[in-house]
Design brief:
Layout: H1 15-33, E1 46-51, H2 57-68, E2 72-77, H3 89-98, E3 103-108, H4 113-120, E4 124-130, H5 136-150, E5 157-162, H6 168-179, E6 183-187, E7 203-204, H7 208-212, E8 217-221, H8 236-243, H9 247-250, E9 258-260, H10 273-277, H11 283-308
Parallel strand pairs: 1-2, 1-3, 3-4, 5-6, 5-8, 6-7, 8-9
Helix pairs in contact: 1-5, 1-11, 2-11, 3-4, 5-6, 5-11
The structure holds phosphoric acid mono(formamide)ester (CP).
Length: about 300
């Protein structure tokens, strides 16, 4: 069983909890792929997706996960809610709690916003990405797709190239993959590597080739133009030429290496279109893993609530 009513990040979660989520998600994924999209596991429960930032994958998969599990589900976008009239996050949370909500999946531009909400409400809070802090369900779905390919995460090398500095995905993957016994290597312009990332356990490569050398999974991360204050690298075409992943770079990876990306992709910047659409790409599979992981987390948090809340 999970140890908390919320899923806020992978920093404080155990390897056993990650394994439980991945095992449950694997079952969910097989069920969905075989056409089963109707479960009673969350019947009578309510899920609200509360998104203060744009999203395609995370929001739609949380919504569908809730619906497939039998929950009542609604979405609130900050742009069309009373947030526009100045309502605080805590007051929004209290309002949702008064509507007998069981689960809130939240995306917020401020790191720590889901934790603040979780302290305030009795609902289970699921972090769908908070600022530059964490994106736990994304890292879990990445781990699910990688684990499915190799049967284990232990002993694997995962190379992450791209905008590490602004990436909540890189941080959650680092916490999760290390706990599961994988090695994490990163490479980017120095301006896009956050200070102290090595102290968290990442290997900082000095070249693309070193980063990818012998890697089992190569992850491109989106250059987050919306979070750049400017001047961190000269241009997107130069980024692609000197830091992007292409066929030549992939020659240094393990022969059976796969290519992953959390999406959305800047085509031709982090990865070439050939790699995105090629046979080693698992980018579409990651989306299905995302649905399965979110179903699994909702199921497991529901079990926690039955036992503790
Ligand atoms: N990977 C990810 O979080 O994608 P969205 O922004 O589309 O949710």
């Amino acid at each position: 069983m999970l140890r908390s009513k919320d899923l806020l990040g992978l920093r404080d979660i155990t390897a056993e909890e990650i394994t439980l989520i991945l095992d449950t998600a694997e079952e969910m994924k097989q069920a969905v792929k075989s056409g089963k999209k109707s479960f009673d596991l969350l019947k009578g429960k309510t899920l609200v997706t509360l998104f203060y930032e744009n999203s395609t994958r995370t929001r739609s998969s949380f919504e569908l996960a809730g619906k497939y599990l039998g929950a009542t589900e609604i979405n609130i976008s900050a742009s069309s809610s009373s947030v526009q009239k100045g309502e605080t996050l805590i007051d929004t949370g209290k309002t949702l709690q008064a509507l007998a909500t069981d689960f809130i999946a939240i995306r917020h531009p401020m790191g720590g916003a889901p934790a603040l909400l979780a302290q305030t409400v009795g609902c289970s809070v699921l972090n769908g990405g908070d600022g530059m802090n964490e994106h736990p369900t994304q890292a879990l779905l990445d781990m699910l797709s990688i684990r499915e390919e190799f049967g284990t995460l232990k002993g694997l090398k995962v190379a992450i190239l791209g905008d590490i500095k602004h990436s909540r995905v890189a941080k959650s993957n680092l916490f999760g993959l290390k706990k599961m016994g994988a090695e994490v290597w990163v490479y980017a312009p120095k301006t896009l590597i956050p200070k102290g990332f090595d102290e968290l356990g990442a290997h900082i490569a000095t070249s693309r080739e070193q980063c990818v050398d012998g890697a089992n999974a190569v992850m491109g991360l989106r250059i987050q133009l919306e979070r750049q204050s400017g001047g961190l690298f000269p241009s997107l075409s130069e980024y692609s030429r000197f830091y992007g992943v292409n066929d030549e770079v992939m020659k240094h990876a393990d022969k059976k290496a796969i290519v992953v990306h959390p999406g959305p992709v800047n085509r031709g910047v982090e990865l070439t279109p050939k790699l995105i659409d090629g046979s080693t790409s698992r980018i579409e599979d990651q989306v299905t893993s995302g649905l399965a992981v979110r179903m699994a987390v909702l199921k497991l948090l529901s079990e926690y609530r039955e036992a503790h809340v």
